[in-house]
Amino acid sequence: MYTGNSTVGKIVMEAAAKHLTPVTLELGGKSPCYIDKNVDIDTVCRRIAWGKFTNCGQTCIAPDYILCDKSIHEKVIERLKETIKEFYGEDPKKSPDYCRIISTHHFKRILSLLEGSKVAYGGQYDEASCYIAPTILTDVSPTSKVMKEEIFGPLLPILTVNNVDEAIQFINQRDKPLALYAFCHDKKVLKKIVAETSSGGVTANDTMIHFTISTLPFGGVGNSGMGAYHGKFSFDTFSHHRACLIKSLKMETVNKVRYPPGSPEKVKWIKRLITKQVNFGKLGLVFIGLLGALLAVLMKVLLLH
């Protein structure tokens, strides 16, 4: 099993292929976050900000970017600003709850993603401490640098769409993400998003918490990985499902139909068994059911003796 980016994931898979070793790859990606216009924006922005800026955005299932209706675009920006201040204060650099970027290399990589983007909030940084403030980006072009790779940091681009169909189209034009988040009251819209997109997992009206539920499989699809784990799914992932059939050496007469020499009658019966073309009708099915029960009892008696 490997957790990381898709570039290294391909190297791991290539190395495993030489030994025919199966792999489980959890590779991340750009996890979209769709916001419908008929939602409680305060609650939505609080949950998105928590998911995005936890560990300074350095989680594989952090919301990577927002797709929202044009009519609520400005409200989303303003409420996100207020939420960031609520979580981390006027100066997040002084907050004990706000983390730092893991290395100078990734610090510089994240800063390079700001090129060509308009900062609506934040944008401050300090290389000495690998600090990058929670940053909201607006007027983001779908072809901009920040939209071409997983951010894995505290930059939050916001793009507008006219409707859910446009949002689905936008998502489907890109690599399949590890997670997909949708905020919407309308269950039909949520079902539409689930049915018409592909992602490792989906969480409706929240972010990241699907990762904490052991009864749900966690893993990617396509460019975001393959295989799944957590709970029983971890056991299944690292186990070989071996088929085992143990038969009795009794009732050999029943098996004679499959042995040589062949005959038209044998072929006829075998075809019937394989294709299941025998039409018994309702009464015939009842008879077959009773016959099956009788045979089961007889076999049990024979096995006991």
Main attributes?
15% strand; 10 helices; three-stranded mixed beta sheet; 305 residues
Beta-strand residue fraction: 15-25%
Based on CA atoms alone, the radius of gyration comes out at 28 Å
H/E series: EHEEHEHHEEEEEHEHEEHHHH
Q: Tell me roughly what share of residues is in helical segments.
A: 25-40%
| Most strands sheet | 7 strands, mixed
Indicate the low-confidence ranges by residue numbers.
none
How far apart the termini lie comes to 49 Å
Compute the number of strand runs: 12
Determine the structural class based on helices, strands and strand pairing.
alpha/beta
Output mean pLDDT: 90
Describe this protein's structure.
The protein is of the alpha/beta class and 305 residues long. The protein has helices at 6-17, 41-53, 73-88, 104-112, 164-172, 187-196, 232-237, 252-255, 264-275, 281-304; strands spanning 2-3, 25-26, 31-35, 63-69, 118-121, 125-126, 131-132, 135-138, 155-161, 179-183, 201-204, 225-226. The chain has a 7-stranded mixed β-sheet with strand order 5-8-9-4-3-10-11, with helices on both faces. The longest helix has 24 residues, at 281-304. The radius of gyration is 28 Å and the shape is elongated. The two termini are 49 Å apart. The relative contact order is 0.14.
Walk me through the topology.
Elements: E1 2-3, H1 6-17, E2 25-26, E3 31-35, H2 41-53, E4 63-69, H3 73-88, H4 104-112, E5 118-121, E6 125-126, E7 131-132, E8 135-138, E9 155-161, H5 164-172, E10 179-183, H6 187-196, E11 201-204, E12 225-226, H7 232-237, H8 252-255, H9 264-275, H10 281-304
Parallel strand pairs: 1-2, 3-4, 3-10, 4-9, 8-9, 10-11
Antiparallel strand pairs: 2-12, 5-8, 6-7
